[in-house]
Amino acid sequence: MSQPLIEFDRLSVQFATEQGVARAVQDVSFAIQAGESVAVVGESGCGKSVTALSLMGLLPPAPACRLGGEVRLDAANLLALPPAAWRPLRGRDIAMVFQEPMSALNPVLSVGEQLMEPLLTHRQLSPAAAWQQAIALLQQVGIARPEAIAASYPHQLSGGMLQRVMLAIAISCQPRLLIADEPTTALDVTIQAQILDLLRRLQQASGMALLLITHDLGIVAEMADRVVVMYAGRVVETGSVRDIFRHPQHPYTQGLLASRPVPGRRLARLAAIPGQVPSPLALPDHCAFAERCPHARPACLHRQPVLQATSPTQQAACLLLSTEEAA
Amino acid sequence: MSDDTLLAVNGLVKHFPLHGGVLGRQTGAVRAVDDVSFVVRRGRSLGLVGESGSGKTTVGRTVLGLHQKDAGEVRFAGHDLHALDKAALRRLRPQLQLVFQDPLGSLNPRLRVGDAIGEALLAHGLCPREALRERVLAVMASCGLGEEHYSRYPHEFSGGQRQRVGIARALALQPALIVADEPVSALDVSIQAQIINLFADLKQQGVSFLFISHDLAVVEHLCEDVAVMYLGQIVEQGSREQVFGQPRHPYTRALLSAIPVADPDARRERVVLQGEPPSPANPPAGCRFHTRCPQATAQCASVVPVVHRVAAGHQVRCHLMA
Amino acid sequence: MRTYVLRRLLGAIPLLFGASLLIFLVFALTPGDFIDGNINLTPQRAAELKALYGLDRPLWARYLGWLSQLLHGDLGFSLQHQIPVSTLLGQYLWSSFLLALVSLLLYWTLSLAVGVLAAVRPYSWFDRVVTLLVFAAMSFPVFFLCLLLIKWFAVDLGWLPVGGMISIGSNATGWDYALDVARHMVLPVLTLVMLQAGGLTRYVRASMLDALAMDCVRTARAKGLPERVVILRHALRNALLPLIALLGFELPGLFAGAIVTEKIFNWPGVGHIHIDTLAARDYPVLMSFTLLLAVLTIVGNLLADVLSALADPRIRLR
Amino acid sequence: AATNPSAIPAQAKARKDTIVGAISAPQGIFNPYLFSNGWDENVTEVIFGRLVGLDAQGKLRAEQAESWQVSKDGLQYTLKLRKGLKFSDGSPFTADDVAFTLTFLHDPAYDGGTDISLAKIKGGDAYKAGKASSVEGIKVLNPQTIQITVTEPGATTLQLIGGPVLSRAWYGRGYQPGKLDDLRQYSSKPLGAGPYIYDKFVPGQEVRFHANPYYFAGKPAVPNFIYRITSDATKLQLFQTGETDLEGFSINADNIEQLKALGFANLNIYNSSDYSLIEFNHNKPALKDVRVRQALTYALDRKKLVDVVYQGYGSVATLPLSPVSWAYDTKGVNPYNFDPAKAAALLDQAGWKLGSDGIREKGGQKLVVTLLATKSLFNDALIPIAKENFKRVGVELRPEVSDFNALLAKRKAGNFDLATFRTSGLNDPHDGVARFRSTENEVGYKNAQVDKLINAGNGTLDIGKRKAIYHQLYQVLANDAPLILLANRKLLYVNSSRIGNYQPDVFNGIFGSLPKLKIQY
Amino acid sequence: MSVLSLRLPWRRRQAELASLASAGRTPWQQALARLWRNRPAMLALLFLALMVVACVAGPWLLPWDLETTDALAANHAPGATHWLGTDFLGRDILTRLLHAGRISLAVGLVSVVLSVVLGYVLGALAGYAGGWLDGAIMRLADLLMTIPSLPLLIILGALLSELQVAPEQRIYLVMLMLSLLGWTNLARIIRGQVQSLRSRDFMLATEVLGLPLWRRLLVHLLPNTIPTLIVVATTGVAGAILNESYLSYLGLGVVPPTPSWGNMMDTANSFVDFQRRPWLWMPPGLAIFATVIAINVLGDGLRDALDPRLQARGAR
Ligand SMILES: Nc1ncnc2c1ncn2[C@@H]1O[C@H](COP(=O)(O)OP(=O)(O)OP(=O)(O)O)[C@@H](O)[C@H]1O
Ligand SMILES: Nc1ncnc2c1ncn2[C@@H]1O[C@H](COP(=O)(O)OP(=O)(O)OP(=O)(O)O)[C@@H](O)[C@H]1O
Ligand SMILES: [Mg+2]
Ligand SMILES: [Mg+2]
Description:
The complex is a heteropentamer. By secondary structure, chain C is mainly alpha-helical. Chain C is built from 13 helices and no strands. Chain C folds into two domains: 2-71, no CATH class; 92-311, MetI-like (MetI-like fold). In chain C, helix 8 (215-222) runs antiparallel to helix 9. By secondary structure, chain D is α+β, with helices and mostly antiparallel strands. Chain D has 18 helices and 23 strands. In chain D, the strands form six sheets. In chain D, strands 11, 12, 13, 14, 18, 19, 20 and 21 form an eight-stranded mixed sheet that branches. A four-stranded mixed sheet of chain D has the order 1-10-9-8, with helices on one face. In chain D, strands 4-5-7-6 form a four-stranded antiparallel sheet, with helices on one face. By secondary structure, chain E is mainly α. Chain E has a single domain, classed as MetI-like (MetI-like fold, Orthogonal Bundle), CATH 1.10.3720. Chain E contains 13 helices and no strands. Chain E has helices at residues 10-20, 27-37, 39-61, 93-129, 131-146, 149-162, 167-198, 201-208, 213-221, 226-249, 261-265, 271-276, 278-306. Chain E is elongated, with a radius of gyration of 23 Å. Chain E starts with 9 loop residues before the first helix and ends in a 10-residue tail after the last helix. Chains C and D meet through helix 2, helix 4, helix 6 and helix 11 of C and strand 10, helix 8 and helix 15 of D. One magnesium ion (MG) is lined by residues 56-57, 181-182 of chain B. One adenosine-5'-triphosphate binds next to strand 2 and helix 1 of chain B.
């Protein structure tokens, strides 16, 4: 395998909060190759966004937030960089699209101005050239009257339009990696389809890698090459999209797949996962899923499983899969 | 209309006035609900689907009498709901309940959940004070909540548990109809399934639902009848099999095809609708869908389509059905 | 936008009438009048004078008289100063305005700078010190502060004049005049800035904290913009919106005259004559002045709304 | 006297040709007959001067008038002006101007503070009522002589008619009887014949003057004079830093010590002509009883009050008069020394018996008295002391503090038992007793004998006779206790030792020595 | 915007998850716990408690009488007999200070209670009833706000002094005056809150449940406005204490011989006393200063404690 574009190596993130330490991300390791689409799925609060933000250097500064492990871009550890050295990477090498386009854009600046900013900062274009480029970018994301839209303010546009604008901003400096953090959650299905389409086209056109964060398995199936399943701050399973959907190994992944009603395939009851996600303030030292796991054994309440390869392309972190347990 | 009709909505219209000008006079209206008719039968559930802003919530609230209607009729169990006086409406309340989308927001943060569930029972004299706790615990149990939850505050629950509390509160009054407005959209995937199962159980016990959702899969899972809304109007309604099996309206089809399928090999061609829904304050003339319809004709832009019955119980509001 | 302004203007009219009535009643009900205050008058002479000034007319007649006078743009005649009220206010208003304007500019600048810095590093030692100072400044009784400043800077150190607006007998013009006034202004301005900056700083800080927590600030950072740009262009612009509204509310304050400060520093402003005119029950002056402030409040409110609407595209381009 | 003139602040020393006096709140009405506050009066004194003034003992003194004669019956006054008298613009100052001034004061539209009717000039009422085109009693005999005929003799008449004079040429332009507007506009452009000429009023700051070359006693030596506006809070600081040369302070040991410590201050301490008092509302049944009034007077420890407030620079008032006056004579006048036992006895006699709560009562009525007061340092001491003293004899005092205007309004409405204030400066003994005359008394005091004596005192100009009359009057008044006399205070005027020839007195303030001032450092 | 409602905003969920960790406590207990952890606020509370205890109990324990004057002991500097010295009438400063504390604190408290009652009732009424009543109440508030408060206070002071009241009772008038002016702000805030609460889902739920009106108001609506009320009221007390001192300076406040911190400080107005007898004005000055700071800090802490989402917000 060639040198990955991005590599998370035992990343852990802790927040100091009023109620105690929140262990948002623990020991997360995975890599993204150039041009690859990786999806991170998991329930709310399992650390998806925090993982992505750690890559952008957008987490709050210490002591509110403590980082461990490494995040490497082209083999250079980003976490060791001073903030000033990190800044030029943002927006140029790595770009990010957020969940709520409405609040992600500045309400007092026009869309065009916001679109020009990275061009002026990273590509040192003249304002006039940046404006031209901004128009071109809007056209590229399928906006019909780019001049008019560039001159308008976020509140004048619909959610779908704004998400297109966000995408235009993200791709403006031809990043090598685009992080899309639940880019369509706030949108209607029909608009979601448009945005996913667009995302796919852009990726194909520019060859950038995509880190797609979502809780919707349908989107994962449509968009990703590889999937990372997270639960309570840890990676519980990772593998190619086919591996994950065809033979999920981890009971959590299995549960997730089974708990969605599938159109046209109606069951009397869904296979719900009982219980609830543990609070990041009170994570157990053993497998965090043990309490909800239908297959849990006594050992699960004592040990923390680690990721193990179950096939050349797939890994899962479950004691049930470990060889010694099987023995 | 047969005997088993629980709720009949006929030609319902609800406009929200828009004010403007120097003197603040009414200058227009958001036509949130425009001529909507449907029926919910006893023991069955109607799923109301549609995109954001299509008027689903407004329908639900007008049905509950929380908004004054502008035209049409809402008959619930034989009563004309909007013609009732305050006291009569209050007496009817237990029959007709609501479950909200945001479970935290729908619970008073300063009230123990046991009290929240029980207070309406007391208020309606449905249960003597001495028996209240038992009764509440029973309802809570049927929603998967234990005795230990009785005297906790809403903030001490997880999202799914809160939604259970919300459902238990509605259920305690033994309603005939529950309007559930996107009851699972705010929940995590694994929790969603728990709540969906709970609804399925309740249906077993004979409660009817007006189930509002933008999630077609959930509606298909739970509802026998389905109505699809677009810009304040129902564009297609029928049984689950009709609407999901043989969708006739181009919008329904587009909607169905837009759902991402959790199967990496099922990468199919789909109808991607262009553009976005117009504003309900200024809906397009003719067929409201014609601006986005892949099959629109010149007629669609000018003539308002009527409702066509394409099969027994299957109605479509589209010129193509003519 | 235009209809909005028009609508607000229309709404201000009944408010103005209400204010004029309220002001009139309040003053009419105050015990004593201009004549009562003169201990040397014989009862006959007092009655003569009351008739001369119309103070013996019934309430409603006096109100209507005043109102019609106002509608003709006439503020009346000062009983005590024997000149038209407008002339009298003109003599004192502008020095109050000067003092208020300078301190306004200063404390806004100061509060903005300090508030933003404190918000950028919340709970840092800088923030804590600022918070402490702000609370301290907010907790000083005014007159106490004035006297302290005079003692330190004017008497003990002798750096600055004790009071007044110009040096005695000064005939300076041009730059010399400006410098002279500036020297006299230092202490009163310092007082006003200290009193006002505290609250405003808290407000700026809170508003800035809100703005910094906005998603769009995170987006700006994600774009790789320099931190300075993120804070000044993205966060501050949003934080300023509610502050702009506040700026409108300052309008009446610019003309109200700081009563205690002006009194102690002998500043020839309206705050200074306010107490005197009240003691003398010179109602034409008091009523006109109070009404002027009411009008300014209403205008300020309007201005605040219009300004923040102009600054916020979400309202401007509705 | 100053101990260390070298301590004069540099700022003051640098002012070679200017003297800075202090003033509190002039309003810019610089017309001696139209101003409405005493500070404007101070300004007009400088600009206008007077025909007849007062000396340091309060005796009449010739100023712009060279001499005067009063007829035997006291009904005819003849004033002779100095020769060559000029207004400050160089125009002649004649008897015609005096006539103009006195006639103007009878204008029906005149709303100023001077009540010319007190002079009872013959034909004055007719003129005021519009029944005559001139005042009969005013007669210009020649450009230097004017004769005034009055209908009643009055001890204060000469002061009234011998006041500041308005130039007919200046103020009479466009003046129509019945309309003051034209005349009023000259209030901000005054023209007089006083020692200094008005330059400029900077509102809230200062009033500027320069020396009048036509002043009858010769052009003052110091070219410029400024009245600087000061306030209680900072006047000491201003004086200390040399911004003012002349200043008045409230008198107490502290101020005196502080000022002495400055080294360069000359302290001038003299008796003031006013007195402070507590007035009884004679319409209240309880206070109609002279024993109650006397009791309350005995009950109040006025000595303590004076000591606390004036710290040795004031005295308990025994007469309604300044101790400096020629009429001052306390012999045989009850001084009402502090005597709670006597007070209690008097109250007992009057039928007010001690109740169980320590408050006296009579017929179910408690002896509770309200006291109207303004907020002042004096009252800050008076109220607690009076409360304590009265309590001791079984009387409850309820103070009500308001501003002066409200106090007078309430007093007029009669809703009070006691009211305390200080009189304005009194030039003549008559001024101090006029309030007891039943025609002028506003609080229900009536005593025919008092009325008779007051009229007699005012009806002659013979000082010897008047002295006897007043002495008798004071004894009668003391027994009647129509009010509680509180204190005669001293005044403290200070000048920087760089100013020479400064001799302020109670009747003239700084004005008396203003023309003679010189700068010595 | 309806699009945003599909999923709960991130921050809300964060609070949701965090609150799971604090299970088992009522919202009030939680707030108290948060307050307890706030060190400056607890110090402020401690200080205020001490102040109240000293002011209430102090005058009884001290040997001096409040009003007895003693010309011989006038203007004594602090010493063994008079710990904080005496004033120009020989009255003990400490006794007066503590007594004044009762009055100043009472003025602060009572005027705030009055304005809170007025503001709360009117604000809640306007917010809940809407329509013309809302219009009328809010126009009244607008009107009061257009009139600058100081002239109004001065006039009210003069006007109210017309009523025959003893100075001991005059302070009630001062309180009344302060509260008559102070209610509008709170009314606005409460009105806004009630309006937003009214459209919250849980209020809608009470209607669907068919709960009687009194229950909807008293159990559901109003208790949720209490935190705001507490915060506004707390900082209001600080403002009222300062205002009283200001009014006293202008001669409109509490009238001597009844002492208040404000009128005790008035002696600083004489330059000599200011320069030479700091014991006359320092104690009341510091008392005002420290009390106002403490109340403000406590108010800040309460704000944080009662509404964590508003954390670190200031108010003007
Ligand atoms: N700034 C912060 N301070 C404290 N805790 C934080 C902070 N940011 C995130 N967390 C915590 O870290 C955990 C992971 O959060 P994260 O936002 O990564 O979840 P997520 O998987 O993106 O969930 P969602 O689907 O809701 O976006 C959460 O429990 C959250 O409470
Ligand atoms: N109280 C109201 N006043 C004015 N307009 C309203 C009001 N309630 C809803 N609307 C408008 O009516 C239209 C329909 O809203 P409604 O909430 O019924 O849609 P919905 O289908 O429930 O959407 P969502 O999926 O976002 O919940 C929208 O355009 C909305 O803005
Ligand atoms: Mg996230
Ligand atoms: Mg909805």
